[in-house]
Each structure stands twice: as structure tokens, then as C-alpha cells.
Design goal:
The chain has seven helices and 15 strands. By secondary structure, it is α/β, with parallel strands linked by helices. It has a five-stranded parallel β-sheet with strand order 2-1-3-4-5, sandwiched between helices. Strand 11 and strand 12 form a beta hairpin. The protein is elongated and about 70 Å long. It starts with a strand and ends with a helix.
């Protein structure tokens, strides 16, 4: 599947390119940073799928789409930080509509839809051998954090702080619940309403003083009753 990313924000385009290269199968991926450049590439190239930003100067995503011959339009997945355009996107038969910042889970789901829509069964999203990397936005940059470097994650209101193996941490604009969904079945377990831990870094599970975990770096992480049974199953203790 040949993919074109159209986005006037270089950082957003690069972020999506990194996600596609790390987690999905694509024969060729190219980038256009405005509508005119995208129109040129689409008219002279053979792309089956376009990730199309909506708000762009001079020519927005919908105007670009209307400038293409209907019989030769590729499949379209709209990308936008604004959800109010979703209805318009589906009115022009978009395959999917991804809200920025794009998560790996949402991208994989969209790529699976695209594979079915475009009848590319052999190029559906690949997760089995994909690098285990968490993609997050810290307010300035997109970061790609290997799962085996993440020791634990702690909720901070509508944000979350990720603690890394190298004794550094970073705050990201994503709730703990969403991070838990992305890390599901990846060796992470919720032990408290505000804490998610990487099982490989747990050194001790103490039931005293309400229950807590001791990690390899000495961090103490509380365990609450509602999560104790599930944690015990993962640690093979009762």
C-alpha cells in the first residue's frame, strides 16, 4: 500500500511517518506539506491511501479532495485536532477520522479499515513484530519511548508522568486510562487508580501498610484493594 501524508505541520507529519514505519506495513510513504504539493504528488503518483490534514493554508483538506477526479481518488483518512469536522469527513466517504495526537491503537484500527476498504488483506496493520514503543506528546515534542525503558506511570490530573529506567521522567498530555489501553497486554498492570507499573521492574510486593510495590530503583508504589487481585494474578501470588 502506497501512502501519502498531507499536513502543513512538519512535526505532526514526521510523527505520523514514524508511527507508520514502526507499526504498519506500507510499500512506500511520502509527505506533502500543503495542498498544492499534495495535488502535484497525487496527480503524478500512484497512492492508494492519503492521511489528510483538514486545516491548511491556501487549500484545506476538503478543497484538495474536491480538486481530485472522483474516479481516481485514493482512500482517505482525515487527521485533525478538531473533532467538529468529523461529520463532513464521513460525508465524503472517508475511511476514518483520526484525532490528533494520533495514538498507535487508533492508527492500527484505521489501517485495518483501510486494508479492508482498499482490498489489501496482505498489507493490514502488523502488530505482532512491531517495535514496542509508546508514542507520546509532551507539549513541545513527540517522544517515542521503548516499553522496556518505562518503569511506571503516575496520573497527574489530566496528564501523566512517565518514569524511565534512566531515572528521568516526562509529563505527557494524556490521561492514565488512555495510556493503560495502549499498553494493554504489553507487560504493564494497574495497581492503583493513579499508578501503572511495568511488571519487569517489580522487585517486591508487600501487603503491609495497605499494600505497596518496591521497584528495582527503590520506588514505592501503592497498591489499592480494587486492583490487588488482578495484580496478584500477574505476579502469580495470592
Amino acid at each position: 500500500m502506497r501512502v501519502l501524508i498531507v499536513d502543513d505541520e512538519p512535526e505532526a507529519a514526521e510523527y505520523l511517518l514514524q508511527l507508520l514505519e514502526s507499526h504498519c506495513k506500507a510499500e512506500f510513504t511520502d509527505v506533502a506539506h500543503n495542498g498544492a504539493e499534495a495535488l502535484e504528488k497525487l496527480n503524478h503518483g500512484s497512492f492508494e491511501l492519503v492521511f489528510l490534514d483538514i486545516q491548511m493554508p491556501s487549500m484545506d483538506g476538503f478543497e484538495l479532495l474536491s480538486a481530485l477526479p472522483a474516479h481516481s481518488r485514493p482512500g482517505v483518512i482525515f487527521t485533525s485536532a478538531h473533532t467538529e469536522y468529523a461529520w463532513n469527513a464521513y460525508q465524503v466517504d472517508a475511511i476514518d477520522y483520526l484525532a490528533k495526537p494520533i495514538t498507535v491503537a487508533a492508527l492500527l484500527k484505521a489501517m485495518q479499515k483501510a486494508a479492508r476498504y482498499l482490498q489489501f488483506p496482505d498489507t493490514a496493520s502488523e502488530v505482532t513484530h512491531a517495535p514496542r514503543v509508546l508514542s507520546v506528546f509532551d507539549g513541545h515534542d513527540y517522544q517515542f519511548l521503548p516499553h522496556d525503558q518505562i518503569m511506571r506511570i503516575e496520573a497527574e490530573g489530566s496528564y501523566a508522568r512517565i518514569f524511565l529506567k534512566n531515572n528521568t521522567s516526562t509529563v505527557v498530555s494524556k490521561r492514565l486510562r488512555l495510556l493503560e489501553q495502549e499498553l494493554q497486554n504489553r507487560g504493564f498492570v494497574r495497581c492503583h487508580r493513579s499508578h501503572l507499573v511495568n511488571l519487569q521492574f517489580i522487585e517486591r510486593f508487600s501487603k503491609s501498610q495497605g499494600g505497596h510495590l518496591t521497584l528495582q530503583n527503590g520506588d514505592l508504589v501503592p497498591v489499592s484493594g480494587g486492583y490487588r487481585a488482578d495484580l496478584g494474578k500477574h505476579l502469580n501470588v495470592s
